[in-house]
Amino acid sequence: MAMKITLIAALALLGATSALPAAINVRRLDGSTISGTDIDATVTHLMAAAEVTGVGIAIINRGKIAYMKPYGFRDKDKRLPLTEDSVMDAASFTKSTFAYLVMQLVAEKVLDLDKPIQQYLPKPLPEYSAYQDLASDPRYQKITARMLLSHTSGFPNFRTINRDRKLNINFEPGSRYAYSGEGIQLLQLIVETVTHRPLQDLMRERIFQPFGMSRTSMVSEARFDSDLAIGYDEYGRSLGHPQRKTADAAGSMQTTLRDYTAFMQAVIESRGLRTQTRAGMLTPQIRIVSKHQFPTLEGLTTQDNNGIRLSYGLGWGLYWSPYGKAFFKEGHEDGFRNYTVVFDQSKDGIVVMTNSANAEGIFKDLLENLIRDTFTPIEWEGFTPYNQLPPRKPLPVHKEITLDSKQLDRLMGRYELSAQLVVNIVTKDGHLAWVENDEPPMDLFPETELEFFRKDADDAVTFETDSQGRSTRLVLHANGRNIPMNRVK
Questions:
Q1: β-bridge mates for residue 144, sequence order
Q2: Which CATH superfamily is domain 7-98+197-388 in?
């Protein structure tokens, strides 16, 4: 649904921290140019039409920043503008950044891409608690770092998509592409084992500091709080900013538009990486024939992307265009949507970082209008244009009731689905809160004595009790699924 904007709102969308001359001309892939005024008009129109809260745009020409500007808000309620230095959730931008570190270790012969990762571990992989599910499947012994970086390990994206929440191998390792955060997390274990260093320190010393990424970290830091972007869902509801307490190579990086653009420039220039090693990183490892990237194990195939030779390298997606090879990476997290692509021969590209769940709906128009990229596989990526999306479902209507402390206390406790998914139900400000692993608490509000809902999402929780009225189990209702979790404490 299109949203009307006033002149004041339009000016706010332009961002208060950039003073680029309106007459600036940015070169596009086809040799044409676009002015700063036209970029502003394009971005603000799309943001308003798709109801996008904040967008940071950086356009690279011949390896140099030709245009960098934030639009909209980092905090909509407080009317705080997004800036080039607003810390956003990098989401899966983390994976390609981690891949750069891994390739440094490969160049130094600390890691061998084709050596089974089991050979780097002091004990069998299933003896690690996070990988005990693999004990009955010997195929884990075939998995290599090359497979993990190219998403050909056979793992699901995350084990939580499986009904039993257990990790499994879905096909012969190395035989096909299926994007997997689990694979990247396993490679993190290998990197930390062979270097005897935590990932957080390795990334800071090898990537962030050398490339001038002064407001980037693998975990949340208090120094970011003064300019921190809040994520928003498709209804414009605040999701807060994820608090990352532990480094996760699959998606915990916190970064800014300015910092991540500096990283992309480093990749373009092969800084900190031998030219030959960079070439290997951006060499196709597997052709991609899946119709969509997600769901990762969908099984539908297509020939639609044969013309661009859609492939995966080591940590990066790849395709070919009339302007040569392009390497790309997307990032998708609750309330944050990101995309970057660089055309390697001309060293032209774009970085788009956003704090809105609606933002993928404007990626196609941004790419086509700002840099004349008509080659990114939009359908495969799942970047359905905003004006082609079905109407949003109306929000469920809940009526909150009041429960006394005794009624709440009987529901408090520790609930487990698996060793990897532990939830503590606690009280907070007179109501219940859901605390999953080390994530920040999510508020739950009562609709009945045993039925609770969230005000910032569509999830709901139902409790089951014994004859004494004490909770024995909860059921999470999320994304059309009912997920039971037994009380263990």
A1: 116
A2: DD-peptidase/beta-lactamase superfamily (3.40.710.10)
d(CA 426, CA 411): 8
Residue whose structure tokens are 């035989």: 175
In this prediction the pTM is 0.89
Specify the fold of 405-487.
Lipocalin (2.40.128)
**Enclosing H/E stretch for 268:** helix 257-269
Number of other residues whose CB lies within 10 A of the CB of residue 106: 21
- DSSP class of residue 113 equals T
Binning the chain into helix, strand and coil, the percentages to the nearest 5 are 30, 25, 45
Closest CA to 186 of 149, 237, 212: 149
In angstroms, the CA 86 to CA 362 distance is 21
Q: Would residue 236 be called left, alpha or beta, if left means φ above 0 and alpha means ψ between -120 and 50 degrees?
A: left
Q: What is the largest CA-CA distance in the chain?
A: 74
Provide CATH 2.40.128 ranges for the chain.
405-487
Please check whether residue 483 is in contact with residue 426, taking contact to mean a CB–CB distance below 8 angstroms: no
Summarised one tens digit per residue, pLDDT across range 207-226 is: 999 999 999 999 999 999 99
Of the pLDDT bands very low, low, confident and very high (cuts 50, 70, 90), residue 12 is very low
Residue 311: how many other CB atoms lie within 10 Å: 21
**Tokens standing for residue 206:** 């090898």
Backbone angles phi, psi at 61, to 5 degrees: -120, 125
Question: Is 240 strand, coil or helix?
Answer: strand
Kind plus residue range of the DSSP H or E element containing 43: helix 36-50
Nearest to residue 100, comparing CAs of 281, 347, 279? 281
Measured CA to CA, the distance from residue 339 to residue 318 in angstroms comes to: 13
Structure tokens at 65: 């920043």
Burial-class residue 64 by CB neighbours within 10 Å (0-12, 13-18, 19+): exposed
In this predicted structure, the answer to whether residue 15 has a pLDDT above a threshold of 50 is no
Joined tokens for residue 79: 């009317």
Contact status, residue 485 vs residue 474, Cβ threshold 8 Å: yes
Q: 185-211: buried (b, 16+ CB within 10 Å) or exposed (e) per residue? A: bbbbbbbbeebeeebbebbbebbbeeb
CATH 3.40.710.10 maps onto the chain at 7-98+197-388
> What is residue 157's three-state secondary structure?
coil
Read off the pLDDT of residues 256-273 as tens digits, 9 standing for 90 and up: 999 999 999 999 999 999
Task: Take residue 73 and report the two structure tokens written for it.
Answer: 């808000």
Q: What pLDDT, on the 0 to 100 scale, is given for residue 163?
A: 85
